[in-house]
């Protein structure tokens, strides 16, 4: 046996003030963590925006300064390569840079499984050869066949990513899903699977949908106070999409969202014919149980009638 190496605390390396951020306020240098949220909350767009920011030096989301720039290694396991390119091109244009000028290396292997030794070795060799500042893996669920609810199965995968971070001084972003219907749970606890995922992150970013057009971003850091929440908007620009933080003025000018009952009434009022339950659910973008409750209340109040063709306003 041999003794583990040690160093006096006073001789440990220090980080210059203001230089511990990769992206100021969002992600630390050489940190691991999660970009999490329910489906369709722009998690992948945020991860790609981080990639463009680190590779270009442009502010992420149009607000957060990139303080340590360099190569990005991206594995987008769910999207076709042409979709990844289209999104990156749109984000690059929105930041006034050309995609050709960005050092973003995209893994094109059909799959990368963190629970397979050969794939872990291949990923390690790729990181060792390319030496990226930032490694993005999107999403976690496509990178293993383990039971995410079992700590004993999830912990080794996260430990491997931590080893990558330490061995190659790389920041690691893991895109991960939140539980469905977890909007009222504390963000970290809403992540799907084992609590190991929440505990593992040095920096975690959480996305929650407020309306069809606005998603809120909250931050969580191991070594810094959180910032936000921030309201994000997805914009169309030059044929592509980009994310940005909304200003206080823009938020103030937005109309207050309609309550669910009013949305159902407006949908019926705008329709030329009775609407079925399925049509109302799709039009109002609400869950079946909520639509049923509202329809029952409106019928009891005599404000709507049910016909063989569907629901209509009372005359």
Describe the protein:
The protein starts with 20 loop residues before the first strand and ends with a strand. It has helices spanning 43-56, 81-94, 117-130, 151-168, 196-200, 248-253, 260-270, 277-284, 288-300, and strands at 21-23, 27-28, 32-37, 72-76, 104-106, 134-138, 171-177, 203-209, 214-221, 230-237, 240-245, 304-307, 310-313. The chain has 315 residues and is an alpha/beta fold. The chain is elongated. The protein has 9 helices and 13 strands.
Q: What structural keywords apply?
A:
Rossmann fold; Arc Repressor Mutant, subunit A; 2 domains; nine-stranded mixed sheet; two-stranded antiparallel ribbon; 33% helix; elongated
Question: Helical percent range?
Answer: 25-40%
Structural class: alpha/beta
Count of spatially separate domains? 2
Ranges where pLDDT stays below 50 over 5 or more residues in a row are none
Number of strands: 13
Kindly, what is the distance between the CA atoms of the first and last residues, rounded to a whole number of angstroms? 88 Å
Mean pLDDT: 89
User: How large is the radius of gyration?
Assistant: 23 Å
Largest sheet: 9 strands, mixed
**Spatial strand order of the main sheet:** 5-4-6-7-3-8-9-10-11
Number of helices: 9
**Content of β-strand:** 15-25%
CATH topology category name of the largest domain: Rossmann fold
CATH homologous superfamily (4th level) name of the largest domain: P-loop containing nucleotide triphosphate hydrolases
* CATH architectural label of the largest domain: 3-Layer(aba) Sandwich
- Under CATH at level 1, the class of the largest domain stands as Alpha Beta
- Element string (H = helix, E = strand): EEEHEHEHEHEHEEEEHHHHEE
Shape: elongated
